[in-house]
């Protein structure tokens, strides 16, 4: 078993919610009081309708307001020191990409399809690491770049998905602004670059290295190049290739560039991929920011002592923030942050249990434990939408929720959800509170809208958890919405 870590994950409920700290039950004879939360059905359905008609061009006004806010609270700086504090704004995918689904049900189905591909890819990434698969065992992805340019084959079974939250950063000197996918489940940063042999459609003009005085190709001998899972050499310059399980991939030069965080500062010589051939499901964003625990992630390269984000509802057109090296909130729930020695990308947390309506669900102690082999455990991931629980744990949590909601009108399942309700005749409904429990008796109580979500515009709401056939569990972004999630990176991790 992993030992207790000195690093912590902090959860802070933002704005209109407050945390409830629940002591662990001292005996089975204690008085049981059901804890409930009110779900605003009308508000959720109204927001679902609004996101279908939202015009992404309206976001430009919001961006101008964001820039003015940054000017008032920050002064420009340029530093690679971990003591520097940076922040940028985050936007839900649908506020940038209007896919014109027509019906909210179709939008949800599309999201869940992306989510399933994402989860499968994380499982594949972990399995490759646990089984110690060598690069020579992986199969190459066919691209327009000549195969001889890539000295090492690449796996086509690893996918980080197409992203649910975007942030805006500047790349180059002078900075060129771009929307980038936010991803705590990957490490390599990259963006589309001119000249393009094949590039997908993005919201911003494609990055032009010629216009940047800080653009610097990496040599094949560079440490950053050697740290890539897949690297190659052409004319003395480092090439990278990242391939995804959904068929998407990016290929190009591995370089260093200046990255700017709005008006809060910039960092020089950040290694990233300059992709000339990028194909797949990344529509909208210019590329991806890897915030994982590996050496090539943005957080590692800028030597961040911590980072945090607050995710707004995915049906909202509002923005939130991604912050680096900001002070930890004082009213947080702390969870031990663990490291799996088999794979350094994922952020595991020390979850001890789950309660429904104030009643702790009976689960084996091993349900969320990270074992010596590197299997099991639970990670926090902003790229996965729906929380996945190991099947036995999911069944127990779901059954307890169903038991406490017998008074509610149930309906048939939807896609990966097997527990749904018909709230079409209700404006609001009282439901049992679902809470994550951590060591020390602390609990993170979720707002009702973070586990009962609309799947159509008619009033069908589903219990937004799903079973995992794998031993790994994942806390997804639906459950994280409205919460400031902070990662303490300065202290040491424990290893499985």
From TrEMBL:
Keywords: Hydrolase, Protease, Signal. GO terms for molecular function: aspartic-type endopeptidase activity. Residues 1-28 form the signal peptide. PROSITE patterns: ASP_PROTEASE (PS00141), PEPTIDASE_A1 (PS51767). Residues 66-85 are annotated as: Disordered. Coiled coil: none annotated. It comes from the Eukaryota. The active site is at 183, 381. One of its GO terms (biological process) is proteolysis. Pfam families: TAXi_C (PF14541), TAXi_N (PF14543). Residues 165-496 form the Peptidase A1 domain. Belongs to the peptidase A1 family. This is Protein ASPARTIC PROTEASE IN GUARD CELL 1. It comes from Senna tora.
């Amino acid at each position: 078993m992993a030992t207790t870590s000195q690093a912590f994950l902090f959860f802070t409920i933002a704005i209109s919610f407050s945390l409830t700290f629940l002591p662990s039950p001292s005996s089975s004879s204690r008085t049981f009081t059901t804890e409930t939360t009110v779900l605003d059905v009308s508000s959720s359905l109204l927001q679902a309708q609004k996101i279908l008609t939202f015009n992404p061009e309206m976001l430009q006004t919001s961006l101008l307001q964001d820039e003015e806010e940054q000017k008032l609270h920050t002064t420009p700086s340029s530093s690679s020191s971990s003591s520097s504090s940076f922040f940028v704004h985050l936007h839900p995918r649908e506020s940038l990409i209007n896919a014109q689904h027509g019906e909210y049900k179709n939008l949800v189905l599309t999201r869940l399809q992306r989510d399933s591909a994402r989860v499968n890819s994380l499982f594949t990434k972990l399995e490759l690491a646990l089984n110690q698969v060598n690069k020579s065992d992986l199969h190459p992805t066919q691209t327009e770049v000549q195969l001889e340019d890539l000295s090492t084959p690449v796996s086509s079974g690893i996918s980080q998905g197409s992203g649910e939250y975007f942030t805006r950063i500047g790349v180059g000197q002078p900075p060129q602004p771009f929307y980038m996918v936010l991803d705590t489940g990957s490490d390599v940063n990259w963006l589309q670059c001119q000249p393009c042999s094949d590039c997908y459609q993005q919201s911003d003009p494609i990055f032009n290295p010629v216009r940047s005085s800080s653009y610097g190709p990496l040599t094949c001998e560079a440490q950053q190049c050697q740290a890539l899972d897949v690297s190659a050499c052409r004319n003395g310059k480092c090439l990278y290739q990242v391939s995804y399980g959904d068929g998407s991939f990016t290929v190009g030069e591995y370089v260093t560039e200046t990255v700017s965080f709005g008006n809060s500062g910039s960092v020089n010589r950040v290694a990233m991929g300059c992709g000339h051939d990028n194909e797949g499901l990344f529509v909208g964003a210019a590329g991806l920011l890897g915030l994982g625990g590996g050496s090539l992630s943005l957080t590692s390269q800028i030597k961040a002592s911590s980072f945090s984000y607050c995710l707004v509802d995915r049906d909202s057109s509002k923005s939130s923030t991604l912050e680096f090296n900001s002070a930890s909130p004082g009213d947080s729930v702390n969870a031990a942050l663990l490291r799996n020695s088999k794979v350094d990308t994922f952020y595991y947390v020390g979850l001890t249990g789950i309660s429904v309506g104030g009643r702790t669900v009976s689960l084996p102690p091993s349900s969320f434990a990270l074992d010596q082999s590197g299997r099991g455990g639970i990670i926090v991931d902003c790229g996965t939408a729906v929380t996945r629980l190991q099947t036995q744990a999911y069944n127990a949590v779901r059954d307890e929720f169903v038991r406490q909601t017998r008074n509610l009108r149930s309906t048939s399942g939807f896609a990966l959800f097997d527990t749904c309700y018909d709230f079409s005749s209700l404006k609001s409904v009282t439901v049992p509170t679902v809470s994550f429990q951590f060591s020390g008796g602390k609990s993170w109580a979720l707002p009702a809208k973070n586990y009962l979500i609309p799947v159509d515009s008619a009033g069908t709401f589903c219990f937004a958890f799903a079973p995992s056939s794998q031993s790994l569990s994942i806390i997804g972004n639906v459950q994280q919405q409205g919460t400031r999630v902070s990662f303490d990176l300065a202290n040491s991790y424990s290893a499985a």
